[in-house]
Amino acid sequence: MAVSIKSAREIELMRESCRLLEDVFARLEEIVRPGISTKEIDRAGERLIRSHGCEPNFLNYNGYPASICVSVNDEVVHGIPHVSHILQEGDIVSLDAGLIYKGYHSDMARTFGVGEIAPDAKRLIQVTRQSFFEGIKMAYAGNHLHDISNAIDRYVTPYGYGIVRDLVGHGIGSKLHEDPQIPNFAQKRKGIRLVPGMTLAIEPMINMGRADVEWLDDDWTVVTQDGSLSAHYENTVLITDGEPEILTMSGKCE
Ligand code: MF3
Ligand code: CO
To answer: Which domains does the chain have, with CATH numbers?
Structure first.
């Protein structure tokens, strides 16, 4: 399938969709603390999304039963919120969410520490975040898609961390998942050429241990095979004539 190029009007709607999602995240960050259940985070997130007059795009997506993916410690992505899953001091928690504003999707993820966390967990979160910015340095019109993938890999691999290969970033727009797929690890081929008006969800998922992941029996929750911690960092990005515009990052949620 062809990669969609957004019109000026579509870009405006994507900007607003992303701005509202960042606002949701800024508020969710404030409620992450020891003692809260993952379900409470989901409920708060859904309420915030609807309070903006938007729809949660994850809810019922291929049967996913919540609005916010809440993935704790060795859970990589797509954790299902549950009332009995209570966050503990020292956990790390990845929140992944998106919304639909006037038909346009946004998608972002952050990993937060719950209370005080171990130095090696902090470093994993920090390196995962920075890997996104290493990728984004290549997100210029005229470059190739896999320049982004290669830059992420080149930055992360020296840390000895495992880059998740079974899940990738994606185009985004009037659908949550559009072409192209965006791997976070080095590629032999160049990939498509980047063009102004492309909107991409770039989302490195990085494990402290090995890259291998598996799916729990709920058919959603992705966990590291070796039980090591995993972090996630995602923004929706616009390719322009100049600097890439990080649409889910206007300053409210780093
Ligand atoms: N944020 C996820 C992604 O980037 C989407 C979650 S899929 C859902 O692909 F089903 F959990 F919603
Ligand atoms: Co995504």
So the answer is: 8-246 (3.90.230.10)
